[in-house]
Amino acid sequence: MELSKMSSYVPQSVRTSFSMDVFDVVLLGRRPHISWRVSSEDREAVSRTLSLLGLEEFAFRKFDKLSGGERQRVIVAKAVAQDPSLFLFDEPTSDLDLRNQIEVMKRIVEIVSDKKSEKSAIVSIHDINIAARFSERIILLHEGEVKADGSPSDVLNEDNIAEVFGVTCEIVDQTDDSPMRVLIKDEV
């Protein structure tokens, strides 16, 4: 139980369906904090989390009736409601449309950027533009080894991308107004 207070895990996709209200699925994230009964603090934490992730309208919909992307957002909310110090996300943007990919990543950054919260997130993700935009540090893996480790601008360069992903690209420089972007051109 103590480990689940310290860390939460969001899988790449949700393969099971619960015939439960979304509110109750997110409340499952509070399980490490609940002793005998669900407290008003637990309910409030779920409500805040649903609001944070823009899921208020889903609160009393059945989880098993949601689309894949909606389910993924709910599972992210469940992890957030758990209130751990470490989040482990495996492709948290899978099944999400572009707008929700950005919104979920913004919320993750917002949560871990709050200096009072002392929270961290490890995100496994294949979308290098999402990684470039939302990461402070990137560890680029290739064939089971660390290829590069550092800031997005240090790690995501044309040589590393060609070797790891087998594609040529152009790096659009990062400015104060927009994050670095990787424009994929073609196979190497």
What descriptors fit this protein?
188 residues; alpha/beta; three-stranded parallel beta sheet; 7 strands; elongated; Rossmann fold; two-stranded antiparallel sheet
Which homologous superfamily in CATH is the superfamily of the largest domain? P-loop containing nucleotide triphosphate hydrolases
Strand adjacency order, main sheet: 1-2-3
What's the CATH architecture of the largest domain? 3-Layer(aba) Sandwich
Sketch the topology as an H/E string, one letter per element: HEHHHEHEHEEHHEE
Query: What is the approximate shape?
Result: elongated
CATH class of the largest domain reads: Alpha Beta
The total count of strands amounts to 7
Instruction: Determine the CATH topology of the largest domain.
Output: Rossmann fold
Give the class from helix and strand content and strand pairing.
alpha/beta
Strand content: 15-25%
Report on this structure:
39% of the residues lie in helices and 20% in strands. The chain has 188 residues and is an alpha/beta fold. It has two domains: 1-125, Rossmann fold; 132-188, no CATH class. A hairpin with an 8-residue loop joins strand 6 and strand 7 (181-187). The longest helix has 16 residues, at 98-113. The model has no long low-confidence stretch (mean pLDDT 90).
Record the SSE blueprint:
Layout: H1 2-6, E1 7-10, H2 22-27, H3 40-52, H4 68-82, E2 86-90, H5 98-113, E3 120-124, H6 128-134, E4 138-142, E5 145-150, H7 152-155, H8 158-165, E6 167-172, E7 181-187
Parallel strand pairs: 1-2, 2-3
Antiparallel strand pairs: 4-5, 6-7
Helix pairs in contact: 3-4
